[in-house]
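Dear Dr. K.,

Following up on our conversation at the group meeting, I've run the structure prediction for DinB-like domain-containing protein from Paenibacillus allorhizoplanae. I'm pasting the input sequence below exactly as I used it, so you can double-check it against your construct before we proceed with anything downstream. Let me know if the numbering doesn't match what you have in your notebook.
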Amino acid sequence: MSETTRLHIDIYLATSELIKQRVSQLSREQLEWKPAPEKWSIKEIIAHLVDASFVHAVRIRKIVAENGNEFLLYDQDAWVASSRANQSELNDILLAFDAILAYNALFYGRLTDEQWERKGNNNGKEISIADLFQGFIRHVQTHLLQIGRNLDALGVK
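The predicted structure tokens came back this morning:
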């Protein structure tokens, strides 16, 4: 594995620590509070990242193994609603996130340069594994901002 790939994988794995740092001092009430009935609580946001990690794992493996098939699509709001994440312990959700990240990191570490550039089809747009990888990191950042908005609405600094 190249030094650049190792660095990128470290950044990928660090997304979990960023989430943990952001939510470590929050109460159960703060973690489960929703800004509106149709909006997600912080626990639901993190559970969504677990779901997104599952889907991400399937997508990258389908590109490598099946050479560019259509991406698995899903209704994220329906997945979050059906997960009942607010009835789960935050630590259990975070453990699942860590496990999937670790397993995907192992897979990423075994990819060849050619495989990083392989593409899959996402609603008519070709996306490479490298793009998916960077997109996942950006996705976590987007949801960290969402967590911040929830906390701002609660008046938590």
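Two things stood out to me. Residues 69 and 112 are 19 Å apart (CA to CA). Residues 129-154 form the longest helix (26 residues).

Best regards,
J.T.
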